[in-house]
Amino acid sequence: MPITRSAKKALRTSDTKREFNIARKNKVDRALKSIKKSIKEGSKSDAMKALRDVQKALDKAVKGNTLNKNTASRKKSRLSKMIKKLSK
């Protein structure tokens, strides 16, 4: 447990940030799950709509330093490749 006043404040701050980051990651995970479901079903139009939601969630996670920008970029790239394969 923190002893000094500044350490107590740092603990409170890190707990708040942790909860916020977990919520943001959960939002990304839910979006990824929905797009993968639509890809598995083979519906390209639903997948394209879900792709916008995924990209928005990933970009917000990067902006808030929850995820690394390269991680988000890699996920977006792989998802768009999966969607392109649906048309073939």
Highlighted features:
elongated, mainly alpha, Methane Monooxygenase Hydroxylase, Chain G, domain 1, about 90 residues
Task: Describe the secondary structure blueprint for this structure.
Layout: H1 5-41, H2 44-63, H3 69-87
Summarize the structure in words.
The protein is mostly helical and 88 residues long. It has a single domain, classed as Methane Monooxygenase Hydroxylase, Chain G, domain 1 (Up-down Bundle), CATH 1.20.58. 86% of the residues lie in helices and 0% in strands. Helix 1 runs antiparallel to helix 2 and helix 2 runs antiparallel to helix 3. The longest helix has 37 residues.
Give the gist of this structure.
It contains three helices and no strands. It is mainly alpha-helical and 88 residues long.
Helix-strand category: mainly alpha
The ordered string of helix (H) and strand (E) elements is HHH
Termini Cα gap: 58 Å
What is the CATH class? Mainly Alpha
Number of domains: 1
Reported CATH architecture: Up-down Bundle
Radius of gyration: 17 Å
Number of E-type strands: 0
Low-confidence stretches: none
Estimated share of beta-strand residues: under 5%
For the biggest sheet, the summary is: none
Say what the CATH topology is: Methane Monooxygenase Hydroxylase, Chain G, domain 1
CATH superfamily: Ribosomal protein S20
The pLDDT mean sits at: 94
| Silhouette | elongated
Please count the helical segments: 3
Helix content: over 70%
